[in-house]
Design a protein that fits this description.
11 helices; about 240 residues; four-stranded mixed sheet; 2 domains; alpha/beta; Potassium Channel Kv1.1, Chain A
């Protein structure tokens, strides 16, 4: 065996080892370039980010030899800033929170969850919606109905019935039966046991539908045949605008 054939694999091993152990690391995160240190990336040993740079390299490299992470690069700067100086971001909080969850940086996750933006979403709004039976399924049903009625139309509408209590549900049952007889689709939300009211739930529905990319608005549903006088208070028309 020649000397050159002995040294070629050894050279590759040394190069790989030096690259792995180099204290300075160049990263390509979703097309954004960063330079940092291994100690910064490994600051929280239990995190997924630290795991990426512990032991054998677990990431691919780009054409320039930079480690590549296929995540949004825009928000990685906030992750790095936290690792470097323990500074919790006040901008793009929801996006940074999503990245912190991906990289599994537990201290940052907990601090972001205490921020007003995340606390309000996770503790207040999400906990409320968890008490509204079939909330997510009903939102998806609204979207399916609106899409089915959008053929050759600029707008389509969905009738929504919102009842906070069992008593309210009983009051509007005749109206629901009338709409069913007329073959009109109605999506019913409630009843629920939580302090937020009907207007709060309507805002949540609009917020969550818009978060999926749809343009919508809502208004009280105009009473039609089959509605009792007060039952129309429980019915709303959500208008989807397509173009």
């Amino acid at each position: 065996m020649s000397i050159s054939s002995q040294h070629k694999p050894l050279g590759k091993q040394v190069t790989s080892s030096l690259q792995m152990l180099s204290p300075i690391v160049e990263l390509n995160v979703g097309g954004e370039m960063y330079t940092t240190t291994l100690s910064t990336l490994r600051k929280h040993p239990g995190s997924k980010l630290a795991e990426m740079f512990t032991g054998q390299p677990k990431l691919r490299t780009d054409s320039e030899g930079r480690f590549f992470i296929d995540r949004p690069g825009t928000y990685f700067k906030y992750i790095l800033e936290y690792l470097r100086s323990n500074q919790v971001p006040t901008q793009c909080v929801r996006d940074v929170y999503r990245e912190a969850l991906f990289y599994d940086i537990e201290p940052l996750i907990k601090q972001l969850e205490d921020s007003p933006q995340i606390f309000g979403e996770l503790v207040a709004r999400k906990q409320f919606l968890a008490r509204v039976p079939s909330y997510s399924e009903n939102v998806e049903l609204m979207i399916r109905i609106a899409r089915a009625e959008a053929v050759a139309s600029r707008r389509s509408s969905v009738i929504v019935c919102v009842v906070r209590t069992e008593e309210d549900a009983a009051k509007c049952q005749d109206a629901l039966n009338g709409l069913d007889t007329d073959k009109k689709s109605v999506v019913k939300f409630g009843p629920w046991k939580a302090s937020p009211g009907v207007s709060d739930l309507l805002d949540c529905i609009q917020m969550d539908v818009e978060a999926k990319g749809y343009k919508i608005s809502f208004q009280p549903h105009v009473a039609e045949k089959g509605f009792r006088f007060k039952s129309c208070d429980f019915f709303y028309k959500f208008l989807f605008t397509w173009w």
